[in-house]
Design brief:
This protein has about 140 residues and is an alpha+beta fold. The chain has 5 helices and 4 strands, in the order H-E-H-E-H-E-E-H-H. A 4-stranded mixed sheet has the order 1-4-3-2. It is globular and about 45 Å long.
Length: about 140
């Protein structure tokens, strides 16, 4: 992120905007994202979104946070990559407790959306369904809170 982007992103989020970070995996990529977000909010912590948070039930009822396989991982018979075995939904809260960012770690929601209509991978449809449901929940939650 450019130095000039930092205050712009901070202001956008503090004025009620929401950002989503997706498709990064494992400890190395986590450390990079956490370092960049510390530049935006040096005084705020990144926290785990609890399983009872309304984002998991505001439109679709999800029992857990999904791990959506990137297409490359799916073709290799696994849902994880780069050591990111456990999916996490994390956030940074504003002063009122509203999530300003949704951080999709160890999951690839974007591939779930991108490959949703590719007939060559019929087994991938389960990941597509999870990716759309979670994204719709994150969007609906953001628009209503």
């Amino acid at each position: 992120m450019l130095d000039t982007d930092v205050p712009i992103l901070r202001e956008f989020l503090l004025r009620g905007g929401t950002a989503m970070f997706d498709d990064f995996h494992g400890p190395f990529e986590w450390a990079n994202l956490a370092q960049e977000l510390k530049r935006v909010f040096p005084d705020r912590e990144i926290v785990e979104v609890s399983k009872d948070h309304p984002v998991f039930s505001c439109f679709y009822k999800l029992d857990s946070y999904p791990q959506v396989a990137g297409l490359g991982s799916f073709l290799q018979g696994r849902s994880w990559e780069k050591g990111g075995f456990v999916p996490h939904l994390r956030t940074i809260l504003d002063d009122a407790g509203r999530p300003m960012v949704f951080i999709n770690w160890n999951t690839d929601m974007g591939d779930g959306w991108e490959w949703s209509n590719v007939e060559e991978y019929p087994g991938y449809i389960k990941y597509t369904a999870l990716a759309y449901r979670m994204a719709i929940n994150e969007i609906v939650y953001s628009l209503t809170h």
